[in-house]
Design brief:
The protein has seven helices and 16 strands. It is mostly beta strands and 304 residues long. Among the domains are: 47 residues, no CATH class; 143 residues, Immunoglobulin-like. Strands 5, 6, 7, 8, 9, 10, 11, 12, 13, 14, 15 and 16 form a twelve-stranded mixed sheet that branches. A two-stranded antiparallel sheet has the order 1-2.
C-alpha cells in the first residue's frame, strides 16, 4: 500500500462475525423430540460488524542540528564560571628545569670545584681562585640552546599551509571538536563542520578521511547553513571504511548561501587508543557552476 504525506485514506473490508444460539425451557424436556417444540424457546442471533479505519500518514523527520546546539555550556559556581573541557595535563612547568642546575651552582662553589679537585690536590690555596671563574662561563652557555629547542616544534604546525581548492573567494571550512582528547568507551564524540566567509555557494562536496582502527562513524547529520533563505537542499552522505563523503546541493537556486554556518556534524565512537588525524577536503560551486575557493585544515585527535 502506497500513501502520500498528509493524505487521508479509508481502509475497510475487515468484518467481524458473532453467532449466538440460546435455548430456554424446562430442564430435561427441551431434549425430548415432541416437547422440545412445545416447552422450549430457541433464539439464534448472528451479528456482523465491519471495521473501517481512516489512515492519515505523516513523515517524521529527525531534528536538524544548528549552531546553538553545538555551543559550549558554561559550568561551575557563580564565582568560577567557565567552559567545560578536558582536564589539563599534569606536568612540571617548562621553565623550572634549567634554573637549579645553571644559576645557583656557580656562586655556591661546592659542586663546581669537584671535577677540578683531583689535579690540584698538592696546592690547595692556588686552585680555588682560577677554578671559580672558569666554570662560571660553561654553565651560562648551556641554557641558550635548551630554551629555543622546545619552541621550534611549536612553531611548525602554525606555518603549515591549509589545503585549498581553486576558485573564486577563500571560504574557510573548519572542524571544531569540543576537545582534542577522546576516551575509549566514552562518547559519542561530535565533530562539527562549519564554514565562514562563504559567498553564494549552491553545491558543496566534502570528503573526511580518518583512521578506521581508532575511530568508528556512528551518524552523520545535516547542518542548517545550506538551507538559508528557505531553500530546498538535497543532503547525501556515504560512510566508508576510513572516509565519509558528504554532498549538499540547493538545486536550481540562483542565490546561493552566504556567510557563516554549520554544514554537517559527524558522530564518532573511540574504539582504540592512538593518534588520529582528521583530514577534510572538497569543492564548491556557485549558482552558475562557477568554482568557489575553499580552505581546509586538518585536526589531530588523541584517543586514550
Amino acid at each position: 500500500m502506497r500513501l502520500r504525506d498528509g493524505e487521508s485514506n479509508l481502509l475497510a473490508g475487515l468484518i467481524q462475525e458473532r453467532e449466538a444460539n440460546t435455548v430456554r425451557g424446562f430442564p430435561g424436556a427441551i431434549h425430548l423430540p415432541l416437547f422440545r417444540q412445545l416447552l422450549s424457546d430457541n433464539v439464534r442471533q448472528n451479528d456482523q460488524i465491519e471495521i473501517v479505519m481512516l489512515l492519515t500518514p505523516h513523515i517524521v523527520r529527525t531534528q536538524e542540528l544548528t549552531e546553538s546546539d553545538l555551543q559550549p555550556i558554561y559550568i561551575g559556581s557563580q564565582q568560577n564560571l567557565g567552559v567545560g573541557g578536558p582536564p589539563p595535563t599534569i606536568a612540571p612547568p617548562p621553565g623550572t628545569t634549567p634554573i637549579p642546575g645553571t644559576v645557583a651552582v656557580p656562586p655556591a662553589a661546592t659542586p663546581t670545584p669537584t671535577p677540578a679537585l683531583p689535579p690540584p690536590v698538592t696546592e690547595p690555596p692556588a686552585p680555588p681562585t682560577p677554578a671559580l671563574p672558569a666554570p662560571a662561563t660553561p654553565p651560562a652557555t648551556p641554557p641558550a640552546p635548551t630554551t629555543p629547542e622546545p619552541q621550534i616544534p611549536a612553531a611548525q604546525p602554525a606555518t603549515e599551509p591549509p589545503i585549498t581548492s581553486p576558485g573564486v573567494g577563500s571560504a574557510r571550512v573548519v572542524m571544531s571538536p569540543s576537545g582534542t582528547t577522546f576516551r575509549v568507551g566514552g562518547g559519542p564524540y561530535i565533530i562539527p563542520i562549519s564554514i565562514s566567509d562563504a559567498a553564494r555557494i549552491s553545491t558543496m562536496t566534502l570528503t573526511l578521511t580518518f583512521d578506521a582502527t581508532k575511530l568508528r562513524v556512528r551518524n552523520v547529520q545535516e547542518g542548517s547553513f545550506m538551507r538559508a533563505g528557505g531553500a530546498n537542499v538535497t543532503f547525501n552522505q556515504q560512510a566508508g571504511t576510513n572516509r565519509i563523503d558528504i554532498t549538499l546541493s540547493r538545486g536550481t537556486d540562483a542565490t546561493g548561501a552566504s556567510g557563516t554556518g554549520l554544514l554537517a556534524a559527524v558522530l564518532f565512537d573511540a574504539i582504540a587508543p592512538g593518534t588520529v588525524t582528521l583530514t577534510l577536503n572538497g569543492a564548491a560551486t556557485g549558482p552558475g557552476g562557477t568554482a568557489m575557493g575553499l580552505q581546509f585544515r586538518p585536526v589531530t585527535i588523541t584517543v586514550q
